[in-house]
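step=encode ok
step=design start
structure_in=
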């Protein structure tokens, strides 16, 4: 039995949700990387990692760290993208993106060396290394808006060719 033109079916919705989750996690990683490169990253570049002193911080290692920190966000973002419809689900999705941005940024920052070579406590790195007064809120808002747009585009019903 074929699906109606406006109905993509559960498998199609799940695949679109997975695509949205992957793209949203990638957007989180890219904006965290941009926040680090444009913010505190310039002073961090060349310093050793706290738990691996033989490794130095570079722009490429910051990108790797941001990707690794945002990867666990894929399943919840994919689920919320697949279920997104009415505004409460979209509000929950935006809250998850913003909370995930904070969590991933804190995970990235936790790898950096503290003043005396000690590790950071949970939550300290976001305020000390990640947060930039104008840049960070702008990048977080940009990520949330991009995720909302992505959900809207991927969940738009397909009605067939136009002009026919």
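sequence_out=
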């Amino acid at each position: 039995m074929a699906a109606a033109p406006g109905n993509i079916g559960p498998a199609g919705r799940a695949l679109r949700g997975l695509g949205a989750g992957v793209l949203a996690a990638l957007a989180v990683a890219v904006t965290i990387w941009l926040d680090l490169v444009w913010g505190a990253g310039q002073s961090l570049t060349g310093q050793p990692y706290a738990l691996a002193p033989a490794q130095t911080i570079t722009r490429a290692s910051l990108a790797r760290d941001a990707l690794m920190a945002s990867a666990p966000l894929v399943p919840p973002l994919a689920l919320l993208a697949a279920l997104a419809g009415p505004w409460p689900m979209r509000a929950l999705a935006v809250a998850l993106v913003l909370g995930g941005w904070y969590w991933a940024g804190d995970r990235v920052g936790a790898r950096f060396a503290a003043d005396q070579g000690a590790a950071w406590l949970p939550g300290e790195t976001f305020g000390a290394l990640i947060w930039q007064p104008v840049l960070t809120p702008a990048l977080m808002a940009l990520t949330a808006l991009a995720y909302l747009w992505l959900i809207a585009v991927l969940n738009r019903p397909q009605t067939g060719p136009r002009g026919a």
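step=design ok
step=annotate ok -> The first helix runs from residue 9 to 38.
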